[in-house]
């Protein structure tokens, strides 16, 4: 199983949007995919159509190992290949457990070993803060995808995320590498890119190198429509908007030989 964490240390950088569309596209390509919602705001859980009762197992129980691993894994309505370990607002209570465990950064990685033979790819939607949950999510990752708004704020989020990643790598808490930086809400007026968008995407390129910056996610209401209808952008009739995720899947498939079938 290849584990990819979607992380960016600011709110509203496109983490959940990226996790959601990437997971659906992988599942549509017949890839057994496990998604994990690690954000107590639980937007990914909601976007995937779940309304959990208070007693239903989530990532909290998966991390604490208070139920068998498979009890926290739910099939989704999207298709037979897409599964979710959900979150609810109780997930915040795991922060102390992680910090007291002494091995917080490696805990999720260890827990995922129990399901590594069942799924081919695991996509984790990270929380926006530099919390214990965020550390264990980076610790579990083989690769990081960093969405960052095409703005001054987004560039700052990218820098903070890279700093955290490098700090964790220095102390051996993760081996994760950056798979790609994904500019989010790139604004265009006809054929002209907004000045702030262009300047910030240029800064991202000079920070991580041209080859790591993926084609950007355009500012568009279509994404919200697809989220609300619980479908992909191409299922909504906007395949062109899906291009950044297709490139990401190509990158992923070079690491695990997916035999992609988008039909
Ligand atoms: N292409 C787009 N253009 C404009 N808005 C978008 C686009 N894609 C998603 N959005 C909206 O942008 C907002 C932020 O996106 P998202 O929730 O994915 O960010 P996030 O990084 O997960 O945020 P948080 O840090 O709060 O978890 C959401 O309201 C989402 O519906
Ligand atoms: Mg989110």
UniProtKB/TrEMBL annotation:
Name under which the protein is recorded:
ParA family protein
AAA domain mapped to chain residues = 3-165
Return any one Pfam family short name: AAA_31
The source organism is: Plectonema radiosum NIES-515
């Amino acid at each position: 199983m290849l584990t990819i964490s979607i992380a960016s240390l600011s709110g509203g950088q496109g983490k959940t949007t990226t996790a959601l569309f990437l997971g659906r596209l992988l599942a549509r390509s017949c890839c057994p995919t496990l998604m994990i919602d690690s954000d107590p705001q639980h937007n990914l859980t909601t976007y995937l159509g779940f309304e959990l009762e208070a007693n239903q197992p989530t990532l909290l129980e998966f991390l604490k190992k208070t139920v068998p691993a498979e009890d926290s894994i739910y099939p989704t309505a999207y298709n037979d290949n897409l599964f979710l370990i959900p979150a609810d607002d109780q997930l915040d209570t795991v922060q102390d457990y992680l910090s007291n465990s002494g091995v917080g950064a490696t805990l999720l990685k260890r827990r995922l070993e129990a399901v590594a033979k069942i799924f081919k790819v695991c996509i984790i939607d990270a929380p926006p803060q530099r919390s214990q949950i965020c550390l264990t999510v980076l610790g579990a990752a083989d690769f990081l995808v960093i969405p960052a708004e095409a703005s001054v704020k987004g560039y700052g989020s990218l820098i903070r995320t890279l700093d955290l990643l490098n700090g964790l790598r220095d102390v051996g808490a993760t081996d994760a590498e950056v798979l790609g930086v994904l500019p989010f809400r790139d604004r265009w007026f006809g054929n002209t890119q907004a000045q702030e968008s262009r300047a910030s995407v240029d800064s991202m390129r000079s920070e991580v190198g041209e080859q790591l910056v993926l084609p950007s996610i355009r500012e568009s209401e279509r994404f919200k429509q697809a989220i609300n209808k619980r479908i992909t952008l191409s299922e909504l009739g906007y395949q062109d908007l899906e291009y950044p995720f297709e490139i990401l899947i190509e990158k992923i498939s070079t690491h695990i030989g997916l035999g992609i079938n988008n039909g």
